[in-house]
Specification:
There is one protein chain. By secondary structure, the protein is α/β, with parallel strands linked by helices. It has two domains: 6-228, Metallo-beta-lactamase, Chain A (4-Layer Sandwich), CATH 3.60.15.10; 243-298, no CATH class. The chain is built from nine helices and 15 strands. Helix 8 packs across helix 9.
Length: 300
């Protein structure tokens, strides 16, 4: 689908991006209370709606990545908030690029992408929140749940009204690709902890920024979350199989465990290197992989 779809759910209006928020698009949403209206993660879908730009009194960011702030430039005077651990990314472009940590030509190219395709503009006036913060919009509340791993400051938002709740998952997106922890500010262990935290939350409605969109059953959500989490183990198992013979880090990077085999580019190389280094560090601590002469080998 290429059309832009709006969907109402109580005080929430989901502003779906093209193709259910498939990257580079995303699913933004509005939460309207009796006192204030909040816009969460203004995406390229908001840019596509600039002829009917939704009004907002404040903007909340689940984290600071290019696709989640693409529409922020359309609200230059609207107060915006993010977790304090990601605020550097809104201070200036250098802070934004530090979150990714891409180096060399790939970093230069991606910086241009952030500026030209996602309309990044610094917001040095960004305000911050921490885990457990509550925004009372008037009859509707948004509670912050810090879920780091994708970035240091990644958060989910629990929207509560009457006796109902929707949990916005940000980039815990439940896709077949699995968790992304390939940036300089990513953490595999934090991501696993955040996923576990979500299994203990009771809610009927769940919303992802990309791809899956609105999920209207906790049972379905748990099935999808389990499959999403299992991609971590799938990558690690494949890595151990590959290390039955001694392999250099370059061998590991070239093989591709995060991306499809054959995926090229400096940025893909850097994501593979960072992601697999996290797995290798853990496996070496567990005594399941040894490093000798700059080559990694699985220990049976």
């Amino acid at each position: 689908m290429t059309e832009l779809i709006d969907k109402k759910l109580g005080p929430i209006t989901i502003l779906f991006g093209v193709e259910n928020g498939k990257y580079p698009q995303g699913n933004s949403f509005l939460v309207e209370g009796s006192k204030q209206t909040a816009l969460i993660d203004p995406s390229l879908g908001i840019v596509s709606r600039k002829d009917r730009l939704p009004a907002a009194d404040l903007i909340l960011l689940s984290h600071v990545h290019e696709d989640h702030v693409a529409g922020l430039h359309l609200y230059p005077s609207t107060p915006c908030y993010c977790h304090q651990a990601d605020a550097l990314g809104m201070q200036d472009l250098a802070g934004m690029m530090a979150i990714y940590g891409f180096e060399g030509e790939g970093g230069v190219d991606f910086e241009s992408t952030v500026l030209d395709e996602f309309f990044y503009q610094p917001r040095p006036d960004v305000q911050t929140f921490e885990d457990g913060a509550v925004f009372d919009l008037g009859g509707v509340t948004i509670k912050v749940l810090h879920t780091p791993g994708h970035t240091r400051g990644h958060c989910c938002f629990m929207v509560e009204w009457d006796d109902q709740q929707l949990v916005y998952l940000g980039d815990i997106e439940l896709t077949g690709f699995g968790p992304y922890y390939g940036d300089a500010w990513s953490s595999l262990t934090d991501f696993e902890t955040s996923i576990e935290k979500l299994t203990h939350i009771e809610s009927e409605y769940w919303l992802t920024f990309h791809h899956k969109g609105l999920i209207e059953s906790r049972e379905q959500f748990l099935v999808m979350l389990k499959a999403f989490r299992e991609m971590i183990g799938f990558r690690e198992s494949n890595l151990l199989d590959f290390l039955e013979q001694p392999r250099s880090m370059q061998d590991i990077v070239t093989h591709r465990f995060v991306y499809r085999p054959g995926t090229g580019g400096s940025m893909a190389d850097q994501v593979e290197r960072r992601s697999m280094q996290m797995h290798l560090d853990r496996l070496m601590v567990q005594g399941r992989v040894a490093l000798s002469d700059e080559k990694f080998t699985a220990i049976k």
